[in-house]
């Protein structure tokens, strides 16, 4: 009997970078899940500091991988996989990636702008998913102003922290899918 034929997986620097940053974001995500929430749907989103930093330094593709890995692995570890919480998290994460794509397209946008746009898009996508999938009640709209206010506050604060990380790392933004120096 012949040995099975296989092709060994090849990993590169990006794979290691994505795995490391996703693990860091996941650890923050799991720790943050244990924090009490003052209002349903309001968390600081500290894992997004890693995503914004990664998007700035290594590009949108790396940020997208980190986001998807964090959401799926976080759903498994926290026990919310395929629950309403998971789908709200997924909607928010995809919305945030859209916000990051927009931020990258706007000239002169810095890490705080990246984070702010991502936070607003995240909250908007989560709210829309909650409305469409779970609570199509007019009373839900009363939550939108405090939720968007929280998104602004945490988006700016997380952006300031991402900017400090980027400054500490001393790197310029990635453009056109090429790694920053």
Automatic annotation (TrEMBL):
The keyword Transmembrane helix applies. Signal peptide: none annotated. Gene3D superfamilies: 1.10.1760.20. The chain crosses the membrane at residues 57-79, 86-106, 112-134, 141-166. It comes from the Bacteria. Keywords: Membrane, Transmembrane, Transmembrane helix. It holds the Pfam family Hpre_diP_synt_I. This is Heptaprenyl diphosphate synthase. It comes from Alkalispirillum mobile.
